[in-house]
């Protein structure tokens, strides 16, 4: 049986997948999501670090980073 992006088991066929989704949506079957394997403490520290970095930056520097990111996203869309 194939595994989803988080390691959960999913039916291999399309009809079986549709039935499973319907059962989860109606509450007949619980959705089983497994742990992603990442350290929760490290995730929390990472979120704090990003916020602290943004607070230290000047508005001009944040705008420059945003412009570079937008240019990178739209680079191949010509």
Give your account of this protein's structure.
The protein has 78 residues and is mainly alpha-helical. The chain has 2 domains: 1-36, no CATH class; 40-74. 59% of the residues lie in helices and 0% in strands. It is built from 3 helices and no strands. The longest helix is centred in the middle third of the chain and has 17 residues, at 40-56. The protein is elongated. The two termini are 40 Å apart.
Blueprint of the fold:
Blueprint: H1 14-26, H2 40-56, H3 59-74
The Rg value, from CA coordinates, equals 21 Å
Any idea how many domains?
2
Order of helix and strand elements from N to C terminus: HHH
Number of helices: 3
Indicate the structural class: mainly alpha
Nearest-integer average pLDDT: 84
**Overall morphology:** elongated
Give the proportion of residues in helices: 55-70%
The termini sit apart by 40 Å
Runs in which pLDDT lies below 50 for 5 or more consecutive residues are none
The major β-sheet equals: none
Q: Assess the beta-strand content as a share of residues.
A: under 5%
What is the total tally of β strands? 0
């Amino acid at each position: 049986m194939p595994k989803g992006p988080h390691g959960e088991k999913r039916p291999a066929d399309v009809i079986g997948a549709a039935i499973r989704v319907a059962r989860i949506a109606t509450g007949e079957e619980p959705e089983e999501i497994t742990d992603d394997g990442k350290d929760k403490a490290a995730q929390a520290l990472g979120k704090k670090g990003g916020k602290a970095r943004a607070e230290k930056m000047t508005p001009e520097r944040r705008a420059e980073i945003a412009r570079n990111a937008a240019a990178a996203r739209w680079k191949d869309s010509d």
